[in-house]
Write a structure and sequence with these properties.
Elements: H1 2-20, H2 29-36, E1 39-43, E2 46-54, E3 62-66, H3 80-86, E4 89-93, H4 111-124, E5 131-136, H5 139-152, E6 160-167, H6 180-187, H7 192-198, H8 201-209, H9 220-231, H10 239-242, H11 244-251, H12 253-262, E7 267-271, H13 282-290, E8 295-298, H14 307-310, H15 312-323
Parallel strand pairs: 3-4, 3-5, 5-6, 6-7, 7-8
Antiparallel strand pairs: 1-2, 2-4
Length: 326
């Protein structure tokens, strides 16, 4: 019996070793097109990917899009062209550690640093004196709140808000329910390095599929594009470091929720109510109670955590109605 286990071990060890060094998937034609249309700038020696499209003539309006965890700027691909028909410039970036940007490790990722990345991009594009509209999702919502705090509270910000539209972000720790794998990765210094290497496409697909509605699931190609963005530059190996943002939200709740509740910047929330991470009605009730200056759009009951992908038309209609209201 002992010899049998030895043989199994001898077979499994090289198989596991091969698996752990499996190369990342190739870019799909759509993802390759997105990448080719972008550029990079340097932030503290790191490459940050961004897209900057010029659109509507006769408009000076600028919109900057901030994506969520664990995906990338490609989350905005379904609403990109309609936005270029309304705005003079449409800009999106991959945060440090995401998508096509650099993914340094070891590295202490933080919401504060990501906000500085956005400010650096704004300066790089010559928009420091331009009022900009921000649209954010999930992780990007918290980055937006740090930018709002810098602009409103301590006046050190290098971004001037015209408006802010949030969507399905875990703004309030008390109504935020991270997935089991997220909790394990952010809190287990022992397990995290193992889990990041063992997480594969099937585990990812199951996890990300759980935060989409049953009728709005990504296609196989869309799942692969998300996974490809994570695996690019070994991004799966930094997920545990990035996930410290959940702990940062708790630690800095007063700073970020305070910025949200006290601002006079026009605010809107687009919310997919089937979201298991920020569940209905607890999340939206607390948001409406605390952020009384904000308007809210609750999308159809089958829309979940990724409203811009699950219901791009509904998302755009809600956003354009907001933009035209002030």
């Amino acid at each position: 019996m002992r010899e049998w286990w030895i043989h199994v071990g001898l077979i499994c060890i090289p198989l596991v070793a091969v698996y752990l060094h499996i190369p990342p998937p190739q870019l799909s034609p759509a993802l390759h097109k997105w990448h080719s249309a972008g550029e990079v700038f340097h932030f503290r020696g790191r490459e940050i990917f961004y897209r900057d499209s010029y659109g509507a003539l006769g408009s000076s309006d600028v919109v900057i899009l901030l994506h969520g965890f664990p995906t990338s700027s490609y989350d905005w691909n379904k609403i990109w062209d309609p936005l270029t028909q309304r705005f003079h410039r449409v800009i999106a970036l991959d945060f440090l550690g995401f998508g096509f940007s650099d993914k340094p490790r070891p590295h202490r990722y933080s919401i504060f640093e990501q906000a500085s990345v956005v400010e650096a991009l704004v300066a790089h594009l010559g928009l420091s004196n331009q009022r900009v509209n921000l649209v954010s999702h999930d992780y990007g919502d918290t980055v937006a709140l740090e930018l709002l705090y810098r602009s409103d509270q301590n006046r050190t910000g290098r971004l001037t808000f015209n408006s802010l539209c949030l969507s399905n972000g875990g703004l309030f720790p008390e109504t935020h329910y991270p997935r089991l794998l997220q909790t394990l990765l952010k809190d287990s210094s022992f397990l995290a390095p193992i889990l990041t290497r063992l997480t594969n496409y099937m585990i990812f697909q199951k996890g990300i599929g759980d935060v989409f509605g049953p009728y709005t699931q990504p296609t196989d190609t869309e799942f692969w594009d998300m996974w490809t963005g994570i695996r690019y530059k070994d991004g799966n190996l930094v997920l545990d470091s990035i996930l410290q943002y959940i702990n940062q939200r708790l630690k800095h709740r007063e700073r970020w929720v305070g910025a949200l509740t006290s601002t006079f910047v026009p605010l809107h929330m687009i919310y997919g109510p089937l979201d298991p991470v920020n569940p209905h009605p607890q999340f939206i009730r607390l948001y409406q109670q605390l952020v009384q200056r904000s308007t809210v759009t609750i999308l159809d009951e089958h829309i979940s955590h990724y409203p811009q992908l699950e219901d791009p038309t509904g998302f755009l209609n809600a956003y354009f109605n907001f933009i035209h209201s002030f």
